[in-house]
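quick q for whoever's on today - can somebody do inverse folding on this one?? i tried earlier but teh output was garbage lol. tokens:
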């Protein structure tokens, strides 16, 4: 009895030890990124165990890889500078954390609001230019021959009245074998000219030339009431022909030739007849339109044959006789 009583008294007299907070390693790893007040760890028997726990925590948390870009933490603007005479290499300049990136969406919203406020009148003003999408660069377009040969005022009769517009025909060439023509219609002459120029650039085709200066042989063609005869000429002869034929041959790079126009000398008929002679035919003779109808007059004919075509037909190789 006395032993049991002394045991109870000693248990009651022992001071109460409060439980110290203790977190597991994975819980500490979870709290480390969000707080710096990490609760103290429980006492360890040796320092090595504490070091091992810290290494495990560090491995669980992991450090960010600074070599990989983060779309939220690493916003940037970059611009590429083309090579120049002083700097023959392409350069890229990158600006990080630029404020314009944060206002980009706001600028787009403001632009959309301004576009809506303009209304239909603003849409007409911002209409896409006919020269916006061309296969040549700006410098190449500036180096082309451009001859507006025909400008007319045309009228379209409708049930509600007459619609008046302007018509323009433009001949374009690089002076070295490429030539084409285009037609454009619009309310104003400058825009009609741009439309015709864009169509002419897309319609350019290669013209075979003898010694890069004249025709291979005498040619003749007839379209409607217009009959044209083209003849090659020697060096230094020049171009002695109809004014419209002269501009087309100059744009094509033909320097020595003569031409005679019989019948109708309508500029539109003369230009289309000449291009049917210079350009290769789009379809064989009497092919038709493919659905049982007749072929278009401008699609008939074989056009100017190339040097390779003549060599294949004759079975012999063509050699220039000039020795200088």
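ok took a stab at it. sequence:
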């Amino acid at each position: 009895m006395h032993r049991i009583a002394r045991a109870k008294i000693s248990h009651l007299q022992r001071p109460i030890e409060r439980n110290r907070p203790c977190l597991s390693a994975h819980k500490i790893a979870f709290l480390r990124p969000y707080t710096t007040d990490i609760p103290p760890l429980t006492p360890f028997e040796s320092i090595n165990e504490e070091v091992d726990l810290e290494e495990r925590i560090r491995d669980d948390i992991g450090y960010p890889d600074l070599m990989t870009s983060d779309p939220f933490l690493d916003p940037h603007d970059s611009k590429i500078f083309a090579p120049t005479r002083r700097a023959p290499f392409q350069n890229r300049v990158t600006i990080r954390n630029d404020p314009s990136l944060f206002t980009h969406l706001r600028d787009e919203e403001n632009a959309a609001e301004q576009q809506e406020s303009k209304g239909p009148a603003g849409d007409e003003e911002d209409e896409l230019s006919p020269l916006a999408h061309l296969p040549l660069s700006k410098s190449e377009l500036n180096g082309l021959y451009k001859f507006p040969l025909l400008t007319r005022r045309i009228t379209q009769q409708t049930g509600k009245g007459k619609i008046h517009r302007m018509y323009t025909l433009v001949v374009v060439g690089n002076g070295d074998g490429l030539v084409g023509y285009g037609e454009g219609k619009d309310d104003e002459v400058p825009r009609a000219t741009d439309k015709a120029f864009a169509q002419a650039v897309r319609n350019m085709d290669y013209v075979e030339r003898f010694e890069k200066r004249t025709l291979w042989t005498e040619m003749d063609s007839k379209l409607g009431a217009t009959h044209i005869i083209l003849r090659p000429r020697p060096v230094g002869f020049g171009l002695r022909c109809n004014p419209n034929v002269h501009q087309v041959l100059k744009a094509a790079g033909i320097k020595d030739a003569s031409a005679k126009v019989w019948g109708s000398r309508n500029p539109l008929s003369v230009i289309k007849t000449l291009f049917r002679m210079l350009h290769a035919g789009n379809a064989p003779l009497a092919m038709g339109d493919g659905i049982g109808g007749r072929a278009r007059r401008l699609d008939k004919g074989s056009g100017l044959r190339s040097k390779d075509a003549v060599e294949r037909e004759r079975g012999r190789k063509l050699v220039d006789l000039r020795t200088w």
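fwiw The mean pLDDT is 77. also The chain is about 35% helix and 20% strand. so keep that in mind when u check it
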